Amino acid sequence: MNGYFKITLQGLVLFIFFNIILTGCTQSSEAFLKKGREMMQAQKFSEALPYLNQAIEKDVENSEAFNARAVTYFELKKYQEALLDYEQAIRLNPESYKPYYNRAQVRLALNDMSNALADSDKAITLQPDSSDLYTNRAFIYHKTGKIREALADFDKAILLAPSDANAYYNRGVFRFELQDLKGSITDFAKAAELDRKMAKAYYSLGLAHLSAQNKEQGCISLKQANRLGHQAAKQAVTQYCGETQ
C-alpha cells in the first residue's frame, strides 16, 4: 500500500512538474505574441518579426502566432512566406475565419482573383455576421468586374453595420465610380452624418455634388473637408469654388 502510494505520489509530482513546464511554454508563447502584436500596432513590422518567431518556437501549435506572423510578412511584402504561414494557421485552426480573410489580401496583391474570392467566400461562411468580410469581398468582385455582386455585398455590409460610417463611404465610392451620383451623394452624406470628423466623406461628397452640378452644396462640403484637414480639399476649394482658403 505504501509502495503504491509512493509511486502514485511520484507520478502526481511528475504530472504537476510537466504541467507547469507546458503552461509556462504556452504563457511564454503568448507573451511573445502579445509583444509582437504591440509592434504591429505601432507599424513596426520588422521589429515584430523576431517576437513572433519566438512565439512560434515556444508553441508550434499557436495558430494565432502563425496568423500574426503572416500578416507581418504581408506588410513586409514577403507574400510567399505569408501564404505558408496562413496555410499553417488554417491547418491548426480550420474554424477560424481570420487566416482565410487575411490570405485573400495576399492573393489579391498577387492578382490571384479566383483564389482571393474563394478565401473570402470561406471567411464569410465561417463568420457570416461580419460587415468587414462583405466589404472585402465587394472590392474583389469590383476588381473582377462583377458589379451586381459587389453592390449586393456593400448592401449586406451596411445591413450588418448600419452605424458604420465607413460602410456607407465605401459604397459611395463604388457608386461614384459607376456614375450613380444620386446614390453616391446619399452614401457620402450618411457617412458624414455618422462621423462628423470624416474628412474624406465631406471631400467625396463635395466632388459628387460638383459632378451633379450642385456647386453651392459641393463647395460647402469641400470647405468642411478642408477645415478637417483633408490634403486635397484646399486645392479643390481654390479650383472649383474660386476661393483661397
TrEMBL record:
This protein's record includes keyword Transmembrane helix? yes
Q: Which residues cross the membrane?
A: 12-33
The source's superkingdom equals: Bacteria
- Coiled-coil stretches: none
Which keywords are on file for this protein? Membrane, Repeat, TPR repeat, Transmembrane, Transmembrane helix
Q: Where are the TPR repeats?
A: 29-62, 63-96, 97-130, 131-164, 165-198
Q: Which Pfam families match?
A: TPR_1 (PF00515), TPR_9 (PF13371)
- Descriptive protein name: Tetratricopeptide repeat protein
